[in-house]
Design brief:
Elements: H1 2-16, H2 21-32, H3 36-56, H4 61-64, H5 68-93, H6 107-119, H7 122-136, H8 143-166, H9 177-202
Length: 203
């Protein structure tokens, strides 16, 4: 069971380590120190639900609705384009440093954005329902498979809370306006690149 849990942990961690749209958003909020706990909890809990579904054997969801990947990809790409352009516009305008927190989003808006990044991203379903679900079949039903799932879920909690609160370690670098503009520009480009990849993948 320990081996299954360790495998689950590192499988889950390997799938979320890449800096994607959701991770970039958590990093940004961590730097701003805005709603970090609630945001990390939401992202990790969302992963937990999807991982549980994958391990439970719902990886065949797309077989029931073949058009789901297309709908999710286009919806997710549209959202990423809008958010990416917003960040590029912020980078162009400047005037934003780490201390400048008066434009903080409300908790509801922050979680709504996180929900869009999470649930409109078709790769989340591929990773959790598909890949993690597939790997889990290598373990015996019952205790071993449960341990694998718990390991994967714990990886999400460790990662998102580590990213959100760990962002403070680079806060001193983000005191300058130039550094913040570079971060916003990097996030904007990342969002647009992911959107393009989503569209290309389904066209």
């Amino acid at each position: 069971m320990t081996a299954a849990a360790v495998t689950g942990f590192f499988t889950g961690l390997s799938l979320i380590l890449a800096i994607g749209a959701q991770n970039a958003f958590v990093l940004r909020q961590g730097l701003l120190r805005q709603h970090v706990f609630a945001l990390a909890l939401f992202c990790a809990a969302s992963d937990a639900v999807l991982i549980a579904a994958g391990v439970a054997g719902f990886g065949a969801l797309t077989a029931l609705w073949p058009g789901l990947p297309l709908v999710m990809s286009l919806g997710g790409a549209g959202f990423l384009v809008v958010y990416g352009l917003t960040r590029l516009a912020a980078a162009w305008r400047g005037g934003h440093a780490l201390e400048n927190g008066q434009n903080a989003n409300s908790l509801a808006r922050t979680l709504a954005i996180a929900a869009a990044f999470t649930w409109l991203n078709p790769h989340v379903y591929l990773d959790t329902l598909g890949l993690i679900g597939a790997v889990s079949t290598g373990f015996a039903p019952g205790g071993e498979r449960l341990a694998f799932g718990l390991g994967a879920v714990s990886a999400s909690f460790v990662f998102f809370f580590g990213l959100g609160y760990g962002a403070r370690l680079i806060a001193p670098v983000m005191r300058s306006e130039r550094a913040w503009r570079l971060l916003d520009a990097g996030i904007g480009v990342t969002m647009l690149a992911i959107a393009a990849k989503l569209v290309v993948g389904v066209v």
